[in-house]
Amino acid sequence: MNQNRKASRSQVLMQAQLESSGKSRDVRLRNLSAEGALVEGDDLPVEGTTILFRKGDIKAQATIAWVSDHRAGVRFDRPLAKELLLRHVPRPRARTEPKFEGRPPIKSTDLSLADRAVPESWVWGNPLDRSKG
């Protein structure tokens, strides 16, 4: 299995189909690039088999590069166009910083006497003593 890839692969989890010898197989698409894909499924074609890879509007002639257990590497005969590829790869989510608006104050001096009574009774009392209350 050659790990020296020409194109980076995007992790996905979608359904696709492989067609060979008049037979169509549903597979799970694990990753996708302009050069190929990683698929997972049962009864996969053997290494070297020429196939038609289908995913939505992608229809690409390809070859099974390798097979191991229930996974196979698919090598496209011609690289996929970037516009076509991007339609099937989800955009990464923007990372956001957590907002802590509305949190209670941290300084005990900002707490009312009633608010302070709860943690103080727990800290200074015996939380394991269940005979009270």
Task: List the main descriptive attributes of the protein structure presented here.
elongated; single chain; 2 helices; mainly beta; six-stranded antiparallel barrel; disordered N terminus; 133 residues
Large-scale geometry: elongated
Strand order of the largest sheet: 1-2-3-6-5-4
Tell me the fraction of residues in β-strands, as a range.
Answer: 35-45%
Our Rg estimate from Cα atoms comes to 28 Å
* SSE topology string: EEEEEEHH
Helix content class: 10-25%
Instruction: State the end-to-end CA separation.
Output: 67 Å
Q: Mind describing the biggest β-sheet?
A: 6 strands, antiparallel, barrel
Tell me, rounded to a whole number, the average pLDDT. 78
Number of helices: 2
Structural class: mainly beta
Number of strands: 6
Task: Provide an overview of this structure.
- The chain is mainly β.
- Helix content is 13%, strand content 37%.
- It has helices at residues 82-86, 113-124, and strands at 10-20, 23-32, 36-40, 50-55, 58-68, 71-76.
- The chain has a six-stranded antiparallel barrel.
- A hairpin with a 2-residue loop joins strand 5 and strand 6.
- The N and C termini lie far apart (67 Å).
- The model is unreliable at 1-5 (pLDDT under 50).
